[in-house]
């Protein structure tokens, strides 16, 4: 029997809040202002959906929250400190972008087992690989390598791998990419469960239905333009 998305549980909370506090964030690229005096506060257990037209600055904001891009002005605190691209930060934070990397000598199942083993002891805080394979519809592809999966199946694996280890904050850039509508609905349930179990999630998305099914608060970015 397939394990339904709503049956998966996560153990992610520790009571600190807000998880994200961004104030007066300004990001420029040459003469172009990408974000201008942007504020965002996200509490533990919240799901926030960043929406807006192409070029509105959603991915840029996610990169800033992940410590991968500096702000020109303003301040960002993530889990109580400025985000920094180091192993301590990434132990707490999961990020998905459209850049995926796989080991060509490991199967789909082995990728999930590897993630779990690296983060051991994981205990009950994360679903086991077999449960993730079922929930993400990858059970019959568990013994092949990721490069032989379809685009949508690889996106499923990417999301499953992120949920295979403990985290306190997930930053997702258009997680709906490549996913069929049925699985998008399951993903919304999974993300809502992650937040319900104490995790915090910020995602850039063009899928209002996914945002709604994840129980997200919508934050619309408008871009800024030439200074
Ligand atoms: N390094 C850069 N140099 C110049 N312009 C940049 C740079 N990075 C981002 N931009 C510009 O900033 C704007 C915001 O880009 P960003 O990728 O954050 O938008 P987005 O809202 O995620 O868009 P999409 O919905 O298409 O993914 C775009 O106009 C982009 O061209």
Question: Which secondary-structure class do the elements indicate?
Answer: alpha/beta
Side by side, the strands of the main sheet go: 5-6-7-3-8
Biggest sheet statistics? 5 strands, parallel
- Give the DSSP E fraction (strand runs of 2 or more residues): 15-25%
> What are the segments in which pLDDT stays under 50 over at least 5 consecutive residues?
10-14
Number of separate helices: 7
CATH structural architecture of the domain at 5-99 and 167-226: 3-Layer(aba) Sandwich
Roughly how many Å is the radius of gyration?
17 Å
Distance between the termini: 57 Å
Instruction: Say which CATH homologous superfamily of the domain at 5-99 and 167-226 is assigned.
Output: P-loop containing nucleotide triphosphate hydrolases
Tally of DSSP β-strands: 9
Name of the CATH class of the domain at 5-99 and 167-226: Alpha Beta
Pfam family, one: ABC_tran
Organism: Streptosporangium longisporum
InterPro entries: AAA+_ATPase, ABC_transporter-like_ATP-bd, ABC_Transporter_VariousFunc, P-loop_NTPase
Domain ABC transporter: 20-227
Q: What characteristics describe this protein?
A:
227 residues; alpha/beta; Rossmann fold; 5-stranded parallel beta sheet; 4-stranded antiparallel beta sheet; 7 helices; 9 strands; 30% helix; binds adenosine-5'-triphosphate; ABC_transporter-like_ATP-bd; ABC transporter ATP-binding protein
What does this structure look like?
This protein has a domain at 5-99 and 167-226: P-loop containing nucleotide triphosphate hydrolases (Rossmann fold, 3-Layer(aba) Sandwich), CATH 3.40.50. It is 30% helix and 23% strand. The protein contains 7 helices and 9 strands; from the N terminus they run βββαβαβαααβαβαββ. Strands 5-6-7-3-8 form a 5-stranded parallel sheet, with helices on both faces. Strands 4-1-2-9 form a 4-stranded antiparallel sheet, covered by helices on one side. A hairpin with a 2-residue loop joins β1 and β2 (32-42). α3 crosses α4 and α3 (108-118) runs parallel beside α5. Mean pLDDT is 90; it is low at 10-14. The chain binds adenosine-5'-triphosphate. Adenosine-5'-triphosphate binds next to β2 and α1.
């Amino acid at each position: 029997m397939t394990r339904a998305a709503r049956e998966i549980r996560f153990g992610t909370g520790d009571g600190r809040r807000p998880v994200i506090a961004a104030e007066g964030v300004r990001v420029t690229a040459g003469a172009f202002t990408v974000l201008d005096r942007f504020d965002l506060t996200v509490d533990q257990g919240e799901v926030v959906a960043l929406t807006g037209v192409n070029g509105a600055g959603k991915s840029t904001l996610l990169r800033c929250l992940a410590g991968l891009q500096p702000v020109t002005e303003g301040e960002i605190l993530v889990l109580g400190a400025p985000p920094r691209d180091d192993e301590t930060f990434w132990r707490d934070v999961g990020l998905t972008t459209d850049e995926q990397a796989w080991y060509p000598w490991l199967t789909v199942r082995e990728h999930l087992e590897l993630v779990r083993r690296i983060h051991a002891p994981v205990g009950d805080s994360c679903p086991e690989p077999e449960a993730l394979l079922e929930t993400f519809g990858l059970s019959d592809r568990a013994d092949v390598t990721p490069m032989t999966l379809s685009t949508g199946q690889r996106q499923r694996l990417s999301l499953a791998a992120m949920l295979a280890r403990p985290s306190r904050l997930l930053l997702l850039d258009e997680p709906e990419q490549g996913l069929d509508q049925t699985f998008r609905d399951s993903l919304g349930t999974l993300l809502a469960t992650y937040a319900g179990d104490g995790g915090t999630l910020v995602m850039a998305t063009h899928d209002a239905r996914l945002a709604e099914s994840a129980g997200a608060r919508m934050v619309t970015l408008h871009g800024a333009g030439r200074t």
